[in-house]
Each structure stands twice: as structure tokens, then as C-alpha cells.
Amino acid sequence: MLVFLSGCAASTIDSAVQKGATALNTQDIFSLVSNNTLHLVSSDFDAYLFFSENGALSAKSVVANNLDYGSWDIKSDDKICINYSVWYYGDVNCYTTYKEAGKDQYLLFTDNGSLAYSASASAGNSKHLKIRSKKGTKTVFVRSSLSKGETGESVSSTSNVSAPAVEPVVTNSGSGATQEEVKHTVKHMAQDCPGCNFEDGDLRKANLIEANLKGANLRGVDLSRANLRRANLEGADLSGATLLSTNLPGANLKNANLSGADLTGSNLIRADFTGADLNNVILDNTLQEGAKGLK
Prior knowledge:
Lipocalin, disordered N terminus, elongated, alpha+beta, 2 domains
């Protein structure tokens, strides 16, 4: 099935349209996916996804039998957006959807018009996937109004799903600045602050996606539940740091000092620990698929 769908489906939107495929609008997409299951297939992906009406997403890989969860929504420019918790680094990806002519098959295209997936649909939770409650308070696009029977025409378009509210970060400051001023300053500094000193600071739940903290002093820092996806922490000193359930997929930790750090429950998928000091580091219950430099 994988070869058939990938080999015969149109590879671009233009070629799909030439073969008679028609684009789905927001209402069409909602009717297709809400409380239903899609089987998404590409050259390197084969999984069943159940789209709960409340925006929760459950997914199961066909080949590896792996499970993942996340959320979904619909943008008012007729795109479905999928956000896995672990797969694809937890990025939000949005797709234009077309129905193939004369078939109950669908095509999902990326923003540049290339084919991402071929898809088939089945009613309800046909694969009996475990359903998790949707977490956080994310800004929704059109799905919420459609689930209430509204048209969604007045919903404004947004470029990305909003991230969960981030708890302001706090460091120990001996200056005369107010606590709020310190919070505001540190939150922005940590996004791009190579070589900076955050020793013993509080960066819990900080949104530090792709942050540049190369060579930074993060000794004893609490980064629990922070989002450091694809962050640059090369050569940083994280000795004795606390990183409980921290999101680090794709992070660069080359030559970092992680001695005595606690990474329990963290997502380390495809993170690079080459040359890092891992003496007495705690890696209990971590996700390590594709990670480099871990023994």
C-alpha cells in the first residue's frame, strides 16, 4: 500500500489539479477529519491518526508501532495543522488538502506545493487509538467554531498555532531592578545570549526554541519543562542543572558540561551530545531516538 499510494499520487498541487483533484475548504476538512481516522502515507511515514473533535490528536505508526499524541486545528485559509508531541520535533505543520478525482483518497500538500502525504479516511476511531485530553490553552483557528456549528468565516488567519503560555523566567538578581523587570529581561536575553551567565537561575517552562546559548553558564539552572527544541547549547555549562521533562529534540549539546545534571523524563530525540561531559548525569525515562553521543 505504501508503494502504491506514494508512486501513483500527484507529486505537486499543479499535477493533482491537472488530474482532476479538487481542493477542500475549511468545512470539508472538518467533516473529513473531526472524530474520524486518517491513514497518512509517504515515502518515510505510515501512521493512523485519530482527530478528536476537541482538537486532541492520537497517532500510531504502522511499521514501528510507536504512539504519539498532540493537537490539530484548521486555519481559515483552508489548511489543516498537525502538532505532534514528539514526532517531527513537535513542530506545527500545516497542509492544503485535495480529494483525488473519482477516489476516496486525499492528498496533503506543504506550503511550497509539494506532496506530503497520501491519505484515506475511516469513520470514528477505527483503530481504537488511546485518546488523551487536550492540554494547554492554545489559540484555535476554525475548528472550534465549526464544532459549534458556526461557519468560521470571521475567524482571522494566523501563521502558526500559538504556543502554550510561558511562565516568566526568574533569576537571582542582586540589582535594584524590580522582579517584573528581571523576568522580562531574562526571558528575552535567553533567546539569544551566547556566553551569558544564568547560574542558579529559574528558567522553568521558558520558551527557548532555537535559542542561542552557546557557551552559556547554566550551572544549577532549573530548566524543567522548558522548550529548547533545536537550541544551540554547544559548550554550555549545565553541571548540576535540573531539566525535568525538558523538550530538547534536535538540540546541539556538543561539548556541553552536563555532569550531575538531571534530565529525567526529557525529550532528547536527535539531540547531539557529542563530546559532552555526562558524568553522573541522570537520564531516566528519556526519549533518546536518534540522539548522538549517549552511551
